[in-house]
Amino acid sequence: MAVAIRLARGGSKKRPYYRVVVTDSRNSRDGRFIEKVGTYNPLLAKDSPERVKLDADRISHWLSVGAQPTDRVARFLDAAGLKERAARSNPNKGKPGEKATERAEERATKAAEAAEAAAAAAAAPAPAEEPAAEEPAAEEAPAAEATTEEVSAPTQPEPAEGSDEAAPAEGAEKAE
C-alpha cells in the first residue's frame, strides 16, 4: 500500500480549510484517510502561527515507515524542520517558448530595418528637402484659387443635350 501525506480540503465555498492527512494514495482527495496529522488555513496571514499546525511526532513516524508527502506538504515539513526538501532546478522555466522567440526576432528585425531606413532618410535627403519645401508653397496659391472657382460653379451637373434627363427638366420649366 502506497501511503501519502497530503491535504484534504474542507471549509465552504471560497473559504478553504485543509487537513494534513495520512492516506492511501489511491483514495480520493477528500475521502477516507488513516490519520489526521495537522491543519492548514490559507486565509490566515503568512506569519501567523495558526496557519500551519503539524503533529511532528506522528509525521516523523509516518515518514519513517515510507509515507511520501506531496509537494505542498513537503514545503510545510521543510519549514517545520521535519524533512529536508530537495531543491528543484528547472533552468528552462523562465525562457519563452518557440513561437514567442520567433515573434521577438521578427520585432527586432523590423525595428532594425526601421532604424536603418530612418538613418538613411535623415542622412541623404537633408539638402534635397529645402527645395522641396519651397515648391508646395508655390503650388498652394493656385490650388486656393481653384477651390474658390469650384464653389461659385453650379453644384448640379448640367445634362448633355439630347439626353433623357434634359427632357423632364424642360417640361418642368414649361409647366411653371
From TrEMBL:
Family annotation (InterPro entries): Ribosomal_bS16 (IPR000307), Ribosomal_bS16_dom_sf (IPR023803)
Record key words, sorted: Ribonucleoprotein, Ribosomal protein
A biological process from GO: translation
Biased composition (Basic and acidic residues): 95-110
Pfam family, one: Ribosomal_S16
Gene Ontology terms for molecular function: structural constituent of ribosome
Family as reported in the entry's similarity comment: Belongs to the bacterial ribosomal protein bS16 family.
PANTHER family in UniProt: 30S RIBOSOMAL PROTEIN S16, SMALL RIBOSOMAL SUBUNIT PROTEIN BS16M
HAMAP family for this protein: Ribosomal_bS16
Name of this protein: Small ribosomal subunit protein bS16
UniProt organism field: Sphingomonas kaistensis
Organism lineage: Bacteria, Pseudomonadati, Pseudomonadota, Alphaproteobacteria, Sphingomonadales
